[in-house]
Write a structure and sequence with these properties.
The chain is an alpha/beta fold and 455 residues long. It contains 14 helices and 17 strands. The strands form three sheets. Strands 3-2-1-4-14-15-16-17 form an eight-stranded mixed sheet, covered by helices on one side.
Amino acid sequence: MTTLWAGQALAGTGWARDVRVTLDAAGRIAAVEEGAPRAADHVVDILLPAPANAHSHAFQRAMAGLTERRGPNPRDTFWTWRELMFRFLDRLTPEDVEAIAAFVQMEMLEAGYATNVEFHYLHHRPGGRPYDDLAEMAGRIAAAAARTGIGLTLLPVHYQFGGCDRRPLGPGQIRFGTDRDGFARLHAASAAALKALPEDCRIGVAPHSLRAVAPEAIADLVALAPDGPVHMHLAEQVAEVEEVRAALGARPVEWVLDHVGPDRRFTFIHCTQMEPAETGGLARSGAVAGLCPITESSLGDGIFDGVRWLDAGGRIAVGSDSNIRIALSEELRTLEYSQRLRDRSRAALATPEMSTGRRLFEAAALGGALAAGRETGAIAPGFLADLVALDGSHVDLQGRGGDALLDTWIFAGDDRMVREVWSAGRHLVRAGRHVAREGILAGYRRAMKVLGDAM
């Protein structure tokens, strides 16, 4: 047994003071006691449930800062960015991917996330030929998680076509490509690659999008992971919506609601191009909206209708997607600020009962648990001990309590306030730094030097 004591904690029933949390040997919360004496193995100021990072493409972290120039096109868009991404990934080796993934996972933990939900589609060699081990690249993500200790939900991605017309995959994309039978074999091999990890790791499945997957294949793909989460990109770009409507006779969200029957197992990523009726319908389905506000801002995706979604009872999770910035507090801040800019309002996502920061954080913690297929999201007995402690001595947190702590962290502070992080009871961030930071950083530096010399 390990014990933590917190001066303030956001427990399952709300804010509490003088809280002792007991963790069992399996990394779960065994007991939560309020009004406890200040005695424990670890004493912290502010204890919160640590959310999952619900959407990541780890390898894209190495591209950060390389796509901010305009090419020959008069208008740079998501689609021109995507072409640059395809060219970049042709340089990546399995060793590079492992080093990059470990660095990404370390940054996630230091930002306050306890879990990496990896939307993993970089499967094959440059040119598209599979590795001798179909799960070579999935194994590299797992090896990174073994090193960092982060909770891992791996989502092998099926990516078959270059568009709704079922055109072949182009250069770069070809490294993602799988047919239905090949994907089933790859998924099984990926599940086997996770067996060396702790029992809290999970595997799900990810039909990439309605553009890249035959609609009639979705049910079979979902059946590959009967107990795992299902993720799909949905309604991110105007051109995507138009292409799907032309091919399937309905907008993407309309088609999914009519043909897939989504529920709480499903997480739909981005959803920045929804009409009001679609927003309400998808929210009521129980599915999670996987939001990546920093990346959505970077790529000019559009603004998710968070006010309407949450008011309809919708669930949200947040992720770092392209990983140009891995910052939990900033993702939540960017989500709220996008609503304010669109509606010319303030405290757009607050309620009479909860401040903006409290509502955002709790929603991301609970929705992230569903997106990860992980028993977490609250400080309560039986849940995995995914926990983050903030530094109560930080000057901006002086004299703050309750919801004001979250509001200050998200809107006036940053992730330097994060002091300690546990993932399923593994104490991985201490005094703001990952326990294996130097070795992980050195490996990332070596990979970046090789990649830089090759560009």
